[in-house]
Automatic annotation (TrEMBL):
Keywords: Membrane, Transmembrane, Transmembrane helix. This is Lipopolysaccharide biosynthesis glycosyltransferase. The keyword Hydrolase does not apply. SUPFAM superfamilies: Nucleotide-diphospho-sugar transferases. The gene is RS01397.
Length: 254
């Protein structure tokens, strides 16, 4: 028995082709796995039920609210929030086990280095070269209730970084990537509109897109990821452009 227990929370919809890799990577580590599914029509639920009895079918209120629902069901000392298209690599699995077995854990939350994997390549630069806060003490933590790009608000304290990679198989193929980018852009438009953020016009939307490409491809050295790095930088630039165009249209809706 480890000194500290772990809840893993996952939200799903139609992830039958990816969810097993996610669950397999945490099955031997998590003391409980909590899945909230928002109406899958494939075998996602059946696959999840092979790994946990705690599978709940729900409506879809948005990313932040759905993850908060999952967090509300957690009962262990620590929580790992992992997406259906992610998996812990072996180094991160071992680092997590070691952390949970410490008598006094130094931090109250941990960032996990992302290993974004696209078109057969695990990216090391650009926007992929970052860590995401996914591991945190349960008591006192919460999610922001944003429609998209929700974040964890952990209890106060220092944050660490776990070794290894949180592998992220973000796109099944290029078509799926386009669909996902469009969805996130529109959700971002609605989120900004709800919060009262202004677009400041279409010219600025274009300039934001150009800056996004330059930031990811040049400043963050996305060019070192080769042709896939270029595709990723262009995709994020397009998402940012579409997001602010959507916001502009919402502002000028008649």
């Amino acid at each position: 028995m480890r000194r500290h227990s772990l809840s893993a929370i996952v939200i799903t919809k139609n992830e039958a082709d990816r969810i097993e890799g996610c669950l397999r990577s945490i099955a031997e580590i998590a003391d409980e796995i909590i899945v909230l599914d928002s109406g899958s029509t494939d075998e996602t639920v059946e696959i999840c039920q092979r790994y946990t009895d705690d599978v709940t079918i729900t409506d879809w209120p948005g990313f932040g609210k759905q993850k908060q629902r999952a967090l509300d069901k957690a009962r262990c000392d620590w929580v790992l929030s992992i997406d259906a298209d992610e998996a812990l690599d072996s180094d991160m699995q071992q680092a997590l086990v070691t952390m949970l077995d410490q008598e006094d854990i130094e931090h109250t939350a941990y960032r996990l280095p992302w290993g974004v994997t696209l078109y057969g390549k695990t990216l090391k630069y650009g926007r992929s070269a970052r860590s995401v806060l996914r591991l945190f003490k349960r008591e006192g933590a919460k999610f922001t209730l944003d429609e998209v790009h929700e974040t964890v608000v952990p209890v106060s304290g220092s944050k660490g970084e776990l070794k290894g990679l949180l592998l992220h198989y973000t796109h099944r193929d290029y078509g799926h990537g386009l669909d996902k980018a469009a969805q996130y852009a529109w959700l971002g438009s609605q989120k900004y509109h709800r919060k009262g953020k202004k677009s400041h016009g279409l010219v600025l939307a274009l300039l934001r897109a150009i800056w996004t490409f330059f930031l990811i491809y040049v400043i963050r050295r996305g060019f070192l990821d080769g042709s896939v790095g270029f595709i990723v930088a262009m995709t994020y630039a397009q998402v940012n452009f579409n997001k602010y165009v959507g916001l502009w249209l919402l502002e000028n809706k008649r």
